Amino acid sequence: MEFENVNIIGLLNPQSVILSLFLGYLAYCISLVIYRLCFSPIAHIPGSKLTAATGWYETYLDVFKGGQFTFQIEEWHRQYGPIIRITPWEVHVADPDFYEVLFNNKTRYSKIEKLRYRFGLHLSSFDTIDHAHHHLRRSAISPFFAKQKVAGFSPQMQSMADKMVDRLATEYSDRVKPVNMNEAYAAFVSDAINYYTFAISYNFIDYPDFVTPFTTSIRKLAMSLHMAGHFPWLLTLLQTLPESVTQKLNPLMVPVFRFHNEVKAQIIKVISGQNNANKEVKYRTVFHELLQSNLPPDELSIERLKHEAASITGAGIDTTKTTLALATFHILDNPSVLKRLRDELKTRIPRANEPMPPLHELESLHFLNAVVQESLRLAFGITQRLSRISPNGPITYGSYMIPPNVPFSMTSYLQHRDPGIFPDPDVFRPERWLDNPKTRSGKPLSRYLVPFGKGPRMCLGMNFAMAELYIGLSTVFRRLDIELYETGRDAVDMAADYFVPIPNEGTEGVRVMVVGSSA
């Protein structure tokens, strides 16, 4: 029997190769979707079939539609219930009572690897994935943000708030021109955290109209966060390029690189003993102490400390500034709230020009405290969902089991707007925090306020941020008479989630006119 010689090479023409590759890839995609919908370990979790089939829907909503995935998660919960599948590999829960189950001090959950490189600070404790490694790094630095330590710094923080208010009273008084309080507060909190970190102030409060290249870039770079999260190789590529090239490709990086280089220079000075600024203040700064901790040598490299420094000084600026600006808007937009707050402040501080009370006395003012709590509720803190994995065992919610190493998450945006916990959740109502409030089930309302998260990864700078809120708001509203200027609620309501809440594009922030100094 004769066989014809077949020219195999002749059959491998470009068209057939491309067609074969396409059909193979199509078969792979179909089988992957079938697996995800029918055989995945979380196939039993309710949710949209589209987002269970592909992660590209999240990419589309966050990257191409501009931070809209959080709102879609909210809509899915309305449709499918308190536990849903939001990607092929992640489960989201919207149940306020379950927050403390997932995020408590006894849990040993890790972050997901996908989140590690979003900020380009993967050596910081904030972006450390493994629980034990995170605990090592955090335990060395957390004592410097303890409440008593922050209280010792509060006089310096108060002097910065005084400086900000004095400038507002002199440069903007008599309604000379409007001032953007987002910028003023950004300068205040930036100067405070930088001074606390290195005992050196960059004097952002002195910048024209309080606008600084660094704080402006921090906010604008937040808009690229989802791109870095979904396409981490882009950030890796940028980091491999010379700084001069990166700055030409993205001019927003110029002040950030400058800041990182200044941070690195300060760390080198601390190591060499050249930076002795801490001797001029009553406390030792974070990095003077950290360098003398018991951390192993590889945890004290200049690069790692630079990541830690940039994380500390950058992380709290936008969230605290946003909360201060939101509080200012709602106080001025609600005459009864404004009157009650001013009456309380005047009772404790009869003369506007007298020194402000110490921090612990400000914290004891009931209505000021209620204003701070309500502002934190509507500012949300970090608005992107907090994702974790349980490497050692499953998570159980009702009749549903989330297997080990499957990401699960919850979101402060949904927690703070649950009408079962906070009736009329979109209304700014400080009175809801007075007189030890309880929920309908009798549980303390404070249990459900989570702007700083909870558990082992709770925000490191919570005490520092709270001090900034009490000192900043009390100083502004006791010493100044201000009014809103062409500012509506769209300037503070979240329209997009870029890790922090972003208002509608085109709004100019919370702008006010300074009538004059308060009586």
TrEMBL record:
The chain crosses the membrane at residues 17-39. Pfam families: p450 (PF00067). SUPFAM superfamilies: Cytochrome P450. It comes from the Eukaryota. The keyword Nucleotide-binding does not apply. Keywords: Heme, Iron, Membrane, Metal-binding, Monooxygenase, Oxidoreductase, Transmembrane, Transmembrane helix. One of its GO terms (molecular function) is oxidoreductase activity, acting on paired donors, with incorporation or reduction of molecular oxygen. Heme binds at C459. Its cofactor is heme. PANTHER family: CYTOCHROME P450, N-ACETYLTRYPTOPHAN 6-HYDROXYLASE IVOC-RELATED. Belongs to the cytochrome P450 family. This is Cytochrome protein.
